[in-house]
Design a protein that fits this description.
The chain is of the alpha+beta class. Helices cover 32% and strands 36% of the residues.
Length: 163
């Protein structure tokens, strides 16, 4: 990982950094996420603080600027499973190890919560992301479904053991 970049847990006080990196992600790679820039840009600061307090997420920072993020949590459609959500690294830092550190942070959190596997969904158009996740040992579960906001885009569920 790049020496100047550090990954740490985020919280309520990081709401504006979360907002900045999340909006960057949605603008940069719109087909990769379940929500859209147009939906999330309308949130006010209080709503971002609420999200920052509710999500379990990690920020990658270059100094005091967020350059990546990943969130972990449960997916109500798949009871008892731990998931990696909202994974993103700013383009200039892709391939530097920042993404691996973000995934490792979410995986460590999930394992500390008792998880034995970590799941994620990746959209078909996100070929670079699918290649990245395969490199980290994620394999398809066989569950493929349309993205709820755009049925023309399919999401592929992947899983990795956390042993």
């Amino acid at each position: 990982m790049s020496r100047e970049v550090a990954v740490r847990p985020g919280g309520v006080d990081d709401a504006m950094q979360l907002k900045a990196i999340r909006l960057e992600a949605l603008a940069d790679t719109p087909a990769a996420f379940g929500s859209t820039y147009a939906e999330e840009v309308t949130r006010d600061d209080a709503q971002w603080r609420e999200v920052a307090g509710r999500w379990r997420y990690f920020l990658a920072e270059d100094g005091d600027v967020a350059v990546g993020m990943a969130s972990g949590g449960h997916n109500v459609e798949y009871p008892g499973t731990w998931w990696l959500f909202a994974m993103y690294v700013t383009p200039r830092l892709r391939g530097t190890g920042v993404a691996e550190e973000l995934v490792a942070s979410v995986a460590a959190w999930a394992k500390s919560e008792g998880a034995t596997q970590l799941h994620l969904a990746v959209t078909e158009p996100a070929t670079r992301a699918r290649t990245f996740y395969a490199k980290l040992g994620f394999i398809p579960t066989g569950d493929v479904a349309p993205l709820h906001r755009d049925s023309a885009v399919r999401k592929i569920n992947l899983v990795r053991d956390l042993d």
